[in-house]
Amino acid sequence: MLLKYFYDEGLAQASYMVGCQASKEAFIIDPAREILPYMEAATKEGLRIVGALETHIHADFVAGSRELAKRLGAKMYLSDEGDKDWKYENIEGLPHQLVKDGDEIKLGNILFQVLHTPGHTPESLSFLVTDGGAKTEHPMGIFTGDFVFVGDVGRPDLLEKSAQKKGTADKGAKDMYASLNKFKELPDYVQVWPGHGAGSACGKSLGAIPSSTIGYERRVNWAFQHDDIESFASELLEGQPEPPKYFGIMKKVNKVGPNFTLDLRKPERLDDINILMKKIKEGAQVIDTREAALFSKEHIEGTINIPFNQAFTNWAGWIINYEQPLYLLTNPDKLEETQKTLQSIGIDNLHYYMDVDLAIRMTSDLESYHDITPKEAKELLDEGAQVIDVRHDSEWESGHIEGSKHIMLGTLLDRLEEVPEDRPLIIQCGSGVRSAIAISLLQAKGVKDVRNMLGGYARWQKDMQ
């Protein structure tokens, strides 16, 4: 048996290739939309990808199972658990097999046993793996998807918060408790291969270690320390981070099926700044992907800054309107990588791009904003300025600047009417990164008297002692 690990840092998402070296075949577990890395790895190992196993209908990225089925003829193994609201649609024309608890799937000498492990979602599955090539009947590991992570378990509230399925959070928490009771009966030595690592919004305290064992999780994972279902459910639901806005869209996309990437239009290159400026005046969404330090010094009026870094995927999903054509100001050398990153969360509407340095040189309609220290911010506050805190709810609740107003960054565009326009604004987050994005949003919407507080709340606490 061969096992290869793939990890997308922007999504904190793990996928896996399991290969049988005897039959020269491979399965991909929870594949991402960009399938080229799997194809290259399979070729290198002399394997043919014949199947894709999905643990559930994902809410945080576009799954690549249909892409593998369309391009390689791989069979999709999809959950047939859950009620009618959580069944895959539009799969009739693709090779597939619907599976339930207790089913078995063979890959050469390797056996996958299907376990229904609801809690994160009603249809969630885990796959217990036994390597028959090792001449043993003992399972080696389990692919848990968003069921059990290293140090945490999947949150059950996404359906309620992102898909507006009322009442599902409490039921999901209780389902999770029952699933964990089954899970902990498996042998201690069984390895745990989860679908996410630290940074994912699918839980609240995921570990950064890529794998674990059932025995270790039973001993140290907080979720296994409860003997009472009510106390477990309460702790599981408490303190979960705000799910990104795009999660609800992803759930629908993965249920009904995404566009195939080979069918997507290629973005057109713009070289005429007048066309871009006209589109901005008409309300086009234009994203500048430069780092905040460059954007703050000069940028085209009406553009929004989402730096192309590890947090890009998350904030793009919060901020970009999926229904509008997207214009990108970027380094052309980064265009392909940026487009694939956008497509990983279903943003397929990238219609145009322009070399950002060229665009800056070609126009005088530029603006900037100022970074200030906490001490300078305090002076402005004493003169009547207002602090807007754009951190997450849990951060705000743990401590904040007296008199500040809390509007979490991802909700800012929906709450612009709450932003005062009769006084200077100081935008603040935890370190100064999210506040820079917030300033670009406000400036693009016409709120100009804004400043970014360097170091955020952490530096405020230090400097104001």
TrEMBL record:
Keywords: Hydrolase, Metal-binding. Pfam families: Lactamase_B, Rhodanese. SMART domains: Lactamase_B (SM00849), RHOD (SM00450). PANTHER family: PERSULFIDE DIOXYGENASE ETHE1 (PTHR43084), PERSULFIDE DIOXYGENASE ETHE1, MITOCHONDRIAL (PTHR43084:SF1). InterPro entries: Metallo-B-lactamas, Mito_Persulfide_Diox, POD-like_MBL-fold, Rhodanese-like_dom, Rhodanese-like_dom_sf, RibonucZ/Hydroxyglut_hydro. GO terms for molecular function: hydrolase activity; metal ion binding; sulfur dioxygenase activity. The keyword Hydrolase applies. One of its GO terms (biological process) is glutathione metabolic process. This is MBL fold metallo-hydrolase. Residues 280-310, 381-465 form the Rhodanese domain.
